From TrEMBL:
Taxonomic superkingdom: Eukaryota
Gene Ontology molecular function: any one: RNA-directed DNA polymerase activity
Regions crossing the membrane: none
InterPro entries referenced in this protein's UniProt entry, alphabetically: DNA/RNA_pol_sf, RT_dom
Alphabetically ordered keywords of this record: Nucleotidyltransferase, RNA-directed DNA polymerase, Transferase
Limits of the Reverse transcriptase domain: 1-175
Record's protein name: Probable RNA-directed DNA polymerase from transposon BS
Pfam families according to UniProt: RVT_1 (PF00078)
Amino acid sequence: MITLRYSPKPWKTAVVLPILKPGKNPTAPDSYSPISLLPVLSKLAEKIILARLNDHLETESILIPEQHRFRPRLSTTHQLLRVVEFIKKGKNRDECTAAVFLDIQKAFDKVWHTGLLFKLITYKIPPPLILLLSSYISDRDISVKINRTYSTNKPIKAGIAQGSILGPVLFNLYM
C-alpha cells in the first residue's frame, strides 16, 4: 500500500453505525451520529500514514501553534488553560474578554476531496503521500448497519470517515 501509493478497495468500505445523540428524538434521522467502523488492516495502514504525515507537519511547522487537538504530545487541556490564563490577565487589567466557539454540523461529511488535495499540495505534502491520501479518500463506500441488518453499499463522494485515524488530521488541514 505504501510503496504502491494505493489504498485497496476492500479497506475503503465502512460499516456505519448510527449512534443516538444524548437527549435527541430517536425518530428523527438527524438525531444520530454516524460512526464508521473500518477494517482493521485499514486502521493499521492509517497509523503508518499518519506517522509520516505528522512528521511532515511538525518538521515544516504547518499547523498553527495554537492547534492542539489531534496532535502528538499536545492536549486540548493545554489550550483550555491558555484561555483561562488569557481571561485572568484581561480581568486583572479590567479588560472585557469575549470568546467564540464553533461547532460545525456534520463537519467531517462536508470535506470536499478536491479541496483537501489542493490544500495538501499547498502545504507541500510529499507527492507520494498525496497520491496515497488521494487513493485513501476516493472511491469509498458505506453500508449502514441497524441491529443485524446491513444496507447495500452506497458510494461516498465527499467527506472523511468518522472513526478513522486520519480523519481528524485531514479535517484540520482542510480547515
